[in-house]
Amino acid sequence: MTFKTRRKLRGYTLGAVAAATYGMNPLFALPLYEDGMNPDSVLFFRYLAALPIVALMLLYRRRTLSPGKGNVIPLAAMGFVFALSSLSLFLSYRYMDAGIASTLLFVYPIMVAVIMAVAYKEKISALTVGAIAVATAGIGLLYNGGEQPLSAFGTLLVFVSSLTYAIYIVYVNHSRLEKVPTLAVTFYVLLFGWTTLALKAGLSGSLTLPADPALWGNIAALAIFPTAISLLCTTAAIQDIGSTPTAILGALEPVTAVVIGVSVFGETLTPRLCIGLVMIVGAVSCVVAGSKAKDALVRLRKMFPNLRRN
Q1: CB 136 within 8 A of CB 81
Q2: pTM metric for this prediction
């Protein structure tokens, strides 16, 4: 096996691990809810525990902790946006099955495509338009696909989370923050995000601790798996196989969440929900793949020249 092949295999493995670990959010968050903690408190301690982990990652990779001149305000704004995305997603778990919420969240690449078209005048391809239609139909199946219709407010929360995350992705890659190391951006986004959550919890007086000391392990797991490990594997996968294949592997996030929801929390998975999940993941994967899918079809057609039109 050549070095190039080994590197690709490592990249695909890391990308899959990154997506799967991010999909573990419900696995560790829902027991904390059952123990009496609220989303504000879960995220407050999750961000707080993740900060030293990311800092150690920065030191290990010999990256500076300096945010750079003029970057504090943009980083603070992105910290607020990221905290809002996390909070709205974790709030949605109280109104719908976590697996379905995580799947609805995965429409954020489509939102990125729309924002890029409106704000940066990028042309939306026919593939993207078709994918949006298929994803919308899939969401319609999810909305009435379970034993009970989804909560309208829960659905709104998930779309707020998707939109704010899409804004975060677009801004980080199309602003002065593009030149700041990824781990440094992540550290300060977590820091300012934690500050936002701390202010909210302080003003509302809603900060709570786990009643069961063993559940501190869940908080540590939230900081390690869906935050630190997912971030590290994502960064490494992008270096090995590129951003597009890594993003496509992100389709494992909602799949992981649904599997956990069904196997651990006894959530209902009907055939209609399965079809909706496949439609959403397939549609968004097509958007993320973009020209890569077109190139693959062109190569496939060249392999069968007799199939060409006369």
Answers
A1: no
A2: 0.79
